[in-house]
Every structure is written in C-alpha cells, then in structure tokens.
Amino acid sequence: MSKQSLNYIPELTGVRAIAAGLVFIHHNPLDEKKFGTFLNKLSSELHIGVTLFFVLSGFLIAHRYFDKKIQFKTYFINRFARIYPMFFILTMATFSFYAITKGKYGIPELKELIANLTFLKGFFDNLKFTGIIQSWTLTVEEFFYLSAPIIFLLIKKWKHSIITIPISLLLLGFGIVKVFENINFLGLMG
Q1: Cα separation of 168 and 7, whole Å?
Q2: Which of 85, 179, 87 minimizes the C-alpha distance to 124?
Q3: H-helix or E-strand containing 158?
Q4: What is the pLDDT of residue 171?
Q5: What share of residues in the chain are helix, strand, coil (percent, to 5)?
Q6: Burial class (CB in 10 A: 0-12, 13-18, 19+), 26
Q7: Which of 6, 30, 37, 158 is most buried, most CB within 10 Å of its CB?
Q8: Least confident span in 46-55, 87-96, 105-114
Q9: Is 19 exposed, middle or buried (0-12, 13-18, 19+ CB in 10 A)?
C-alpha cells in the first residue's frame, strides 16, 4: 500500500459531499412560500456543514500526523503549498476585479488586501467578508494547521494537556476577544 493510500479514507469523501451540500443549501435557503417556514428556517441553519469541514480537517491532520515525528519544515511547506498558491492567485484576481470595477464595488483598501493575504481577516468582523467572501474559513483552518503540531507534542508529553489545552484555548479566545474589543489592532478595527 502506498503512503498516500494509507492517509486516504474513501468514506470521508461522502461526508465531505454531505458537508458541501449543507453549506450550499445554507447559502441558498429553501423558499419560505414554497416549502414553509420550518424548512426555510431549517435550511438557513445548515451552516453546520462548515463545522463538519473543520472537524474532518482536524481528524485528518490528527490521523496523519499525531503518531508520527513531525518534520516541521516539511509539514509547514506542505500545508502552505496545498492552500496558498491558488488562494493568492484568486485573491489577487478578486481584488484586481474590484479595483477595475471600482464604480460598482468601490476600491478595496490596502488593509483589506493585507488581512486577506495573511489570513488575518477572519479575526475582524468588519473584514471577514472582504475579498473572497468564503475564505474567512481559511483563517480558522490555517491557524489550526499552525497550532496542531504543538498541541500534538503537548498531548504526547503530558497526558493532562488533553484537558488543559481546550480550556486554555477557550480562555485565550475569550481574552483575545476582549482585547480586540478595546483596541484598534494594527489599525484594522473600526
């Protein structure tokens, strides 16, 4: 069996298809007049598909790397190469389109472009839907990729960290939200 086939789990392709369908329906909710209020409201809540994608991604990274010695350079190059080149091209095309059609869409600000290209836009409510609107999810994905090897090392070295890491991350998240509410971080807020 090849190394790639050991990491490929065909059953997850169906789960990905379900998640994609849920997200698609969420973005195109069922018409209330045709399907009724209940189905309309239900379809608008199917953003749960995004969470399903995050869980799948976390599972696959853990499945592939948890029991192995991670070569950090190779790991980060692989994560970067998998996402960033196409993302960069599409983001630059999107911002170029906005700049060319400035009358209709307005000229994007430099802070929007920087926040998009650095995956930081997902941290800012006023920037998260700039550029390629759906790419806010890449902020979550890429920061998970950055933290996963560290989390794996901590869990292997100290078994209690399986409890303390999630609690610490929640507290850190709440702290970051409080800080961002009170400061103009990098001039990107407000």
Answers
A1: 30
A2: 179
A3: none
A4: 87
A5: 75, 0, 25
A6: middle
A7: 30
A8: 105-114
A9: buried
